[in-house]
Design brief:
The structure is a single chain. Helix content is 66%, strand content 0%. It is mainly α.
Length: 67
């Protein structure tokens, strides 16, 4: 998908320099991918303590050993 963006030139230049990646598209894709991953982690953290998971670790280990 083609998109026109106005991004700070210094930020792009520094990103290219620090990463060693020579392609602006790859830099943007990497940044967006990292951003999405971060947001997903935050959503998971928000649900901590809200889920009722009853897991028997010993039973899981035993089943794993029997496989």
């Amino acid at each position: 998908m083609r998109t026109t963006l106005n991004i700070n030139d210094d930020l792009i230049s520094e990103s290219l320099k620090l990463s060693g990646i020579a392609n602006k598209t790859k830099i943007i894709e990497l940044a967006l991918s990292d951003f999405v991953r971060k947001l997903k982690r935050e959503k998971i953290k928000e649900s901590c303590g809200k889920l009722d998971l009853k897991v028997d670790i010993l039973k899981l280990r035993e089943e794993e050993l029997n496989e």
